[in-house]
Design brief:
By secondary structure, this protein is mostly helical. Helix content is 60%, strand content 0%. The protein starts with 9 loop residues before the first helix and ends in a 6-residue tail after the last helix.
Amino acid sequence: MKDLSIPDSALAKKATQLVAEVSPKFLYNHCIRTYLFAEAIAQRDGLKYDRELLYLGAVMHDLGLTERFDSNQRFEVDGADAARTFLVEHGLSTEKAEMIWDAIALHTSIGIASRKQPEIALVHLGAGADVFGLRLPEISSEIVEQVIDAYPRLNVNKSLTDLLVSQVKRKPEVVAFTWLADLGKCHIHGFNCPSFDDMISHSPFSE
């Protein structure tokens, strides 16, 4: 990884501007770091990928956590819908926009995203590297330091958790059967949402 440059196509610049406008600084920095770590992993693994598509997926992957695009779905889907609409409106082909939709919607899906196209898998891997440190030891410490110096973390762990918990509080109905339900149980007193066992126990079918 020779430098910390990001794609500078007209569409990439528009996407960056959008994310910067709607996101708190800690979230914007996280999205950029997601791309940079994803690219470092891609280069380490010798993957062939479309650099612009990877960037668009990475930089826009948390749009669903922003006030403008927070709707009535789980945040990954809200963000995927928002990104696809924006990109098609700005000239990206429907086929490529669908790939970005998948990259964003699946970026928290362990065991699924990594089996998809490189651009989709790498958004998942880049976000995992930045949030949990997954595969971070495989990236040189010099690159990691450069990325964090250029895009500081700004207490992202707590700030991101607070943002996610606020979504769970406001729309608990969409987090059932997801990892967000565990977050709710850990951080919200008295939180409850249907579990798989609850649903199957109330199935209308008699055995």
